[in-house]
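Reopening this ticket.

The earlier resolution said the output was attached, but the attachment link was broken on my side. Pasting everything inline this time so it's all in one place.
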Amino acid sequence: MTATLVLEDGTVLAGQGFGAQADAVFELVFNTSMTGYQEILTDPSYRGQGVLFTVSHIGNVGINLEDDESTHPQVSAAVVRALSPVVSNWRAALSLPEWLAQHGVPGISGVDTRFLTRKLRDGGTQKAALSTKGTPPETLLQMARDWPGLDGRDMVREVTCPEPYHWCGDEGSKWVESVSSNQLSVNSRPLSIVAYDFGIKENILRHLASYGANVTVVPADTPARDVLAMKPDGVFLSNGPGDPAGLPYAVEATRQLIESNVPIFGICLGHQLIGRALGAETYRLKFGHHGGNHPVLRMADKKVLITAQNHNYCVRPGDLDLEEVEITYQSLNDGSLEGMRLKHKPVMSVQFHPEAAPGPHDAHDIFAEFFGMMSDER
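Inline output:
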C-alpha cells in the first residue's frame, strides 16, 4: 500500500502506507518521546492532529489491552520513519497497523522524519493531508489548504463523555502506586472530586483514585452550578484538544468555580481555561510542545523537572495580575508559562502533564499538592 503526505506549503512525500486505507486532513505535529506510542496515539488531546514520531522505529511492541489513554486512537494519522515488521512483546494483542486499520486511521512510513521535524520546528506547525488509497497529490494539497484548522474551534465536544460517570477503574495498580491516606492528613471520609472531561487521560484518573478519592467525571459543558451542587471537595479541569479560545462555556464555568472558592486543579487545557478565566489571553506556540523530555523550572526552589507535554497553545503571562497570581513553573526551552497558583484562592494549575503516560515521573507529586490543598480546605 503506497501513501502520499502533502503539507500546505506544497511539500510532497511518498512512502509506504499502513493502517486504514483512507484520506485524512489534520494539523501535523512532532512528538519527541522515545517510548509510549500507544499512549500518545490514544491521548484525546491529539484530536484533529497527525503525529510525526521523531524516534525512528515504531511498532515493535505492538498494541496491548492495558495502555490506552482512551477507548480508541484519537489521532488523525501517524507518520513514522520505520515501521517494525515484527511485534515482540508478551502483552501484545495485535500489531500497530492492524489496530489503526480497525479504527480507520491511516499511517505512512518510509519518509524522512528528520526533514519533516526540522521543517515544522523552523517554519511552524502546518496543515497536512495523507492518503493511503491513491488520492493525487494536487487533490491532497487542496484538501489541506481548504481545511479550517484548529484555531477557534471547539474540538472538546468530539472527545468528552456524553454523561457523568464514576471512575471505577484502577486505583493505583501497576501504573500508579496507591497513596495511604495518612500521607495526606486525611482521616475522615474519602475526598470527593468532580473531574471535567475535556479529553481526560485515564492515567490522570488513576492518579486521582490512587489517593483514595471518589472521582465523578462530568461532560465538558456541565454548568458550574451543577458541579457545586455535588458538594465536591475539589474540582479537576482536564487536558483536551484544540484552542481554549473556542470554549467560552468552559471558561465561564471555570470563572464561576474560581469565585466559589472550591479547590481547583487544572492540567494542560485546564490550565489554559483557568488563565482565560482570570482575564489572560492564550496564544499559539510556533510548533507546540509534544514529548517526554521538556525541562521546566520550579520557581520556588529552582529545581528542574523533566516533564511530558502536549499542547499548541499557551497562557500569556503578561496578562495575569501578579498581585493575585503566583507563577510556579516556567519552560526552560522557550520561557513560556508552565504553572501558576492563586495567592488568595485554592486554585493551582500546570501546563505540562504530571501523570506522564508516557514520560518521566518527576512531577507525580503535584497531585499530592492538590490533595493537600483540599485537605486544608476541609
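Reporter confirms the inline version is readable. The mean pLDDT is 95. The chain has nine helices and 19 strands.
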